[in-house]
Amino acid sequence: MAPRRSHKKSRAGCRRCKVRKIKCNEVHPRCGNCSKHGVLCDFEKHDDNQTSPDTPHATASASPTNSNCDSPSAATSPLPVTPSAPASTPAPLYRNPEPLPLTSTSKNNRMMELKLLHHYTTITCETLAISSPVSEKIWRETVPCLAFSGASFLADALLAVSALHLRSHAPQDQDLIRASHSYMASTFSEYSASLSKGITESNAEALFLTAALIAFQSTASRIFARDDGGDMKDRSGGYALPLSWFHSFQGVKAVVASSWQWLRNSGIVVPIIESQPALNLNLSGNPTFFSDLLIGVEEEVTSLDDDPARQMATRQAYQHAVAVLDWAHKIPHTGAPLVFLATVSRRFVELLEARRPRALAILASYFGLLKCLDSVWWLKGVARREVMGIVSLFDPDDEEWWPRLQWPLRIALIDGDGIPADVWGADWAAEKALMDQASQSGSFVSHIELLSQMFSAMQNLPNNMPDALDPFTHQYALGREKASRQQQLLLSDELQGPEVD
């Protein structure tokens, strides 16, 4: 037998060859075996450490205002540099030499996020826009893209709403309950921090959309208030008003008023706002469907408020709220009733907090209007639940207010979606014609334009100016001679929402 040829054993081979117990030819930057199989070699990692980190880092994210995932800047952004190799060497299949260290917990979290994102983009987004394909497409495609571009609070918000939507089908699912609460808590934290730093051109769109999703979440959470120990009952055990709805929707109004200089040119926000029907309020003082809710208002404001400015604010709050009711009553299937939450004044919310009978009766009629939107998951059952709760606050022997509660009561107790026109009090066949007429007479954007100008004027006034500003001062400063005195008063009152830095 021929003697075994001697050889020198090397310990300088790559790790992969050592693990496979095969001879490594020790060629740098990639040995022959690794080149043959098209995988990264341990030598590459060693060589690359001399110049750059092994794990690739993403380039700077696009500005949050870039809402197009397929934009040229996104498509052409440079990828991390791959370590150089001979031209004959096959390209590696993976950039990372080892799998990501995923624990079972983090993997479960990833799967939950994928589940929520999929549900949002396929189903939930369709429920955020009522009768508006354009707005629906924005919620489906553009909003997630904006969230991915750096607005993490917006991403958390859409995941929170998606979790709540899924929970509506599985109320006791603890994973969905935790996800909904956790993502919304994260949303509030980062959203509040961004607001405290100030609204800018770069974050205005994301803040508006997040405020809208917070409002959706606040409204839909009422469905689970009993399960979550929420605010369905007050301290005395009676019915608790859903005041959080008003606070969250008023927050949307405040963000819009503060950042309209940038939002007015947004290809995201403007179409969403334009999808709302034009806010054409009847301020003539002539009898309307809900005008009985204003009977006796003068006696109330003079007997309960001593300050003339306070009396004016109270009177305006009632008049404006009823005008919005009358407008929405004619076109309820368009989603018009939802505008009520954002457009009523801060003073009206204060009257609700004080549980003034007139404010409660107006609110009951508002919830009656929502019966037309009972098929929307986050509004399902709202009309019956809230109207019955408000009615429980009145004495059935109250001859002044009990008769004015009969309309919302009849509407709320109807089974099914069909509401007879004679019970509703409007001609359903005329709804489309009214919508067409409204679209020709203006848009919701024009209403916001006026609000924004007035908001700017109010911001520039001395701090000692009264809250109830003289309408002619506005008219002179803004050059809006065509705006009626009463409309200026109501719009001025409407601006008195939550403050935003």
TrEMBL record:
Keywords: Nucleus. The keyword Protein transport does not apply. PROSITE patterns: ZN2_CY6_FUNGAL_1, ZN2_CY6_FUNGAL_2. Residues 13-43 form the Zn(2)-C6 fungal-type domain. GO terms for molecular function: DNA-binding transcription factor activity, RNA polymerase II-specific; zinc ion binding. Residues 48-105 are annotated as: Disordered. Residues 71-92 have a biased composition (Low complexity). SUPFAM superfamilies: Zn2/Cys6 DNA-binding domain (SSF57701). CDD domains: GAL4. Residues 50-70 have a biased composition (Polar residues). InterPro entries: Fun_TF, Zn2-C6_fun-type_DNA-bd_sf, Zn2-C6_fungal_TF, Zn2Cys6_DnaBD. This is Uu.00g008490.m01.CDS01. It comes from Anthostomella pinea.
